[in-house]
Amino acid sequence: MKEEKRRMEMERKVSIAELFRSPAYRQPIIIAMVLQLSQQLSGVNAIFYYSTSIFEKAGVESPVYATIGAGAVNTAFTVVSLFLVERTGRRTLHMLGLAGMAACAVIMTVALALLERVPWMSYISMLAIFGFVAFFEVGPGPIPWFIVAELFSQGPRPAAMAVAGLSNWTANFIIGMGFQYIAEACGPYVFLIFAALLLFFLIFTYLKVPETRGKTFDQISSGFRSRPASLLDMEEKASTEMECLGEGSLS
Fold this sequence. Notes:
This protein is mainly alpha-helical. Helices cover 77% and strands 0% of the residues. It contains 12 helices and no strands. Helix 5 runs parallel beside helix 7 (121-138).
């Protein structure tokens, strides 16, 4: 760990352009961007931004109180995730959250579609929304930020976090501006779109995202390397060569 820390302190800063040009960073930055998209395109902000109107369409008698309830669930499961994140793998929690949200989105769709024929479906839709929010806070809410920070060492991390943040807020803007129009067009089936996206992100996480809990950066990056030399070793070698060239020119 001390050796790794020493080598990381020697790393030079990496620009955003280098993240996409370098094969060593390309796969981690794509994973970082997709994880941020999985957070915002999950549909959770559609519920937060339009929760009152969603509860009204679901036939809930007091939609304002239901909205407050969703906020309370959000807060409670944020606290729960604090205890789970270091006990369970990041990848496992993210997949659990995505799978739970997809299931809740399907249940929500069925409940909204049957609401006119089965009035008590309003309670099912409300419970599905609460479950949707709870699973978000278990996985896609906090986990992408953990994994993004752990995929990169100190040199490329600031640029990687900037790209991840841009991806996150761009998707947030798209959902905030576009959801109401999509909901008008799709009616009660709008959450099937999010269910499909959640399924895609679940498969992507299973196939591409490494587990980062309890691992050093060298252990994490070894899964991305196509050559035996580690990224940190290459950085250190380049730094040492530059120092030697500088000393040679002075002498």
